[in-house]
Amino acid sequence: MPRYLPGELTDRIISLVLGSTDGSDYNGYQALLSCALVCQAWLPASRSALSDCIRIDCRAAYDSFVQSVLPSEQWLPYLQSTRVLWIDQSSYELRSNIRDSESCHGRIVSSMTPQVTSRT
Protein backbone atom coordinates (compact mmCIF):
# COMPACT_ATOMS: atom_id res chain seq x y z
CA MET A 1 0.00 0.00 0.00
CA PRO A 2 1.51 3.39 -0.98
CA ARG A 3 2.20 5.85 1.82
CA TYR A 4 1.03 8.82 -0.26
CA LEU A 5 -2.13 9.60 -2.14
CA PRO A 6 -1.60 9.95 -5.88
CA GLY A 7 -1.25 13.56 -7.05
CA GLU A 8 -4.30 13.25 -9.31
CA LEU A 9 -6.45 12.37 -6.30
CA THR A 10 -5.16 15.18 -4.06
CA ASP A 11 -5.50 17.67 -6.94
CA ARG A 12 -9.14 16.64 -7.43
CA ILE A 13 -9.89 16.89 -3.70
CA ILE A 14 -8.31 20.34 -3.51
CA SER A 15 -10.32 21.48 -6.55
CA LEU A 16 -13.53 20.55 -4.69
CA VAL A 17 -12.66 22.30 -1.42
CA LEU A 18 -13.95 25.69 -2.49
CA GLY A 19 -17.70 25.15 -2.58
CA SER A 20 -18.57 28.33 -4.44
CA THR A 21 -17.06 29.73 -7.63
CA ASP A 22 -17.83 33.35 -6.79
CA GLY A 23 -15.42 33.72 -3.89
CA SER A 24 -18.18 33.90 -1.28
CA ASP A 25 -17.26 30.67 0.53
CA TYR A 26 -15.05 31.98 3.34
CA ASN A 27 -14.61 28.56 5.02
CA GLY A 28 -13.62 26.99 1.70
CA TYR A 29 -11.14 29.79 1.11
CA GLN A 30 -9.58 29.24 4.54
CA ALA A 31 -9.45 25.50 3.86
CA LEU A 32 -7.60 26.14 0.57
CA LEU A 33 -5.09 28.32 2.39
CA SER A 34 -4.55 25.42 4.80
CA CYS A 35 -4.17 22.97 1.90
CA ALA A 36 -1.41 25.19 0.48
CA LEU A 37 0.52 24.75 3.73
CA VAL A 38 0.19 20.95 4.04
CA CYS A 39 3.14 20.05 1.83
CA GLN A 40 5.00 21.18 -1.28
CA ALA A 41 3.08 18.73 -3.48
CA TRP A 42 -0.26 20.35 -2.56
CA LEU A 43 0.86 23.92 -3.28
CA PRO A 44 0.30 24.10 -7.08
CA ALA A 45 -3.26 22.70 -6.92
CA SER A 46 -4.06 24.97 -3.99
CA ARG A 47 -2.76 28.06 -5.81
CA SER A 48 -4.69 27.10 -8.91
CA ALA A 49 -7.94 26.78 -6.94
CA LEU A 50 -7.27 30.01 -5.03
CA SER A 51 -6.61 31.96 -8.23
CA ASP A 52 -9.67 30.69 -10.12
CA CYS A 53 -11.79 33.35 -8.45
CA ILE A 54 -9.98 36.21 -6.75
CA ARG A 55 -12.02 38.20 -4.25
CA ILE A 56 -10.70 41.49 -2.90
CA ASP A 57 -12.86 43.05 -0.23
CA CYS A 58 -10.62 45.29 1.86
CA ARG A 59 -7.74 47.67 1.37
CA ALA A 60 -5.18 45.27 2.86
CA ALA A 61 -6.18 42.55 0.39
CA TYR A 62 -6.03 45.00 -2.52
CA ASP A 63 -2.61 46.32 -1.48
CA SER A 64 -1.28 42.80 -0.98
CA PHE A 65 -2.59 41.68 -4.37
CA VAL A 66 -1.10 44.67 -6.22
CA GLN A 67 2.25 44.67 -4.40
CA SER A 68 2.93 40.96 -3.90
CA VAL A 69 0.85 38.82 -6.23
CA LEU A 70 0.74 40.78 -9.51
CA PRO A 71 4.53 41.20 -9.85
CA SER A 72 5.25 37.60 -8.80
CA GLU A 73 6.67 35.30 -11.48
CA GLN A 74 5.39 32.30 -9.48
CA TRP A 75 1.79 33.54 -9.61
CA LEU A 76 1.80 34.49 -13.32
CA PRO A 77 0.61 31.09 -14.67
CA TYR A 78 -2.20 31.02 -12.09
CA LEU A 79 -3.29 34.60 -12.79
CA GLN A 80 -3.53 33.86 -16.49
CA SER A 81 -6.20 31.25 -15.75
CA THR A 82 -8.23 33.43 -13.37
CA ARG A 83 -11.89 33.38 -14.40
CA VAL A 84 -13.39 35.91 -11.96
CA LEU A 85 -11.82 38.96 -10.36
CA TRP A 86 -14.25 40.34 -7.81
CA ILE A 87 -13.40 43.67 -6.17
CA ASP A 88 -15.89 44.82 -3.56
CA GLN A 89 -15.74 48.60 -3.64
CA SER A 90 -18.47 49.05 -1.04
CA SER A 91 -16.10 50.24 1.67
CA TYR A 92 -15.09 53.90 1.33
CA GLU A 93 -11.48 53.10 2.17
CA LEU A 94 -11.13 50.58 -0.65
CA ARG A 95 -13.14 52.68 -3.10
CA SER A 96 -10.86 55.70 -2.66
CA ASN A 97 -7.71 53.57 -2.86
CA ILE A 98 -8.82 52.02 -6.13
CA ARG A 99 -9.93 55.35 -7.59
CA ASP A 100 -6.52 56.89 -6.85
CA SER A 101 -4.63 54.15 -8.68
CA GLU A 102 -7.31 52.76 -11.00
CA SER A 103 -5.72 53.56 -14.34
CA CYS A 104 -2.34 52.05 -13.46
CA HIS A 105 -3.54 48.96 -11.63
CA GLY A 106 -6.48 48.39 -13.95
CA ARG A 107 -4.08 48.01 -16.87
CA ILE A 108 -1.85 45.69 -14.83
CA VAL A 109 -4.73 43.43 -13.82
CA SER A 110 -6.12 43.40 -17.38
CA SER A 111 -2.81 42.50 -18.94
CA MET A 112 -1.98 39.77 -16.44
CA THR A 113 -5.40 38.14 -16.37
CA PRO A 114 -6.66 38.00 -19.96
CA GLN A 115 -9.19 35.23 -19.30
CA VAL A 116 -11.12 37.12 -16.60
CA THR A 117 -14.78 37.03 -17.56
CA SER A 118 -16.17 39.21 -14.83
CA ARG A 119 -14.89 42.31 -13.09
CA THR A 120 -16.90 44.23 -10.51
Quick take:
Helices cover 58% and strands 8% of the residues.
Q: Can you tell me the residue ranges where pLDDT is under 50 for at least 5 consecutive residues? A: none
What is the count of structural domains? Answer: 1
Series of secondary-structure elements, N-terminal to C-terminal: HHHEHHEHE
Strand content: 5-15%
Can you count the beta strands?
A: 3
What distance lies between the first and last C-alpha atoms, to the nearest angstrom? 48 Å
Overall morphology: globular
* DSSP helical segment count: 6
- The portion of residues assigned to helices is 55-70%
Structural class assignment:
mainly alpha
* Average pLDDT number: 75
Q: What gyration radius follows from the Cα positions, in whole Å? A: 15 Å
Task: List descriptors.
F-box domain-containing protein; 3-stranded parallel β-sheet; mainly alpha; 120 residues
Describe this structure as you would to a colleague.
This is F-box domain-containing protein. It comes from Lentinus brumalis. This protein is mainly alpha-helical and 120 residues long. It has six helices and three strands, in the order H-H-H-E-H-H-E-H-E. The chain has a three-stranded parallel sheet. Helix 6 (92-112) links the parallel strand 2 (84-87) and strand 3. The longest helix is centred in the last third of the chain and has 21 residues, at 92-112. The N and C termini lie far apart (48 Å). The model has no long low-confidence stretch (mean pLDDT 75).
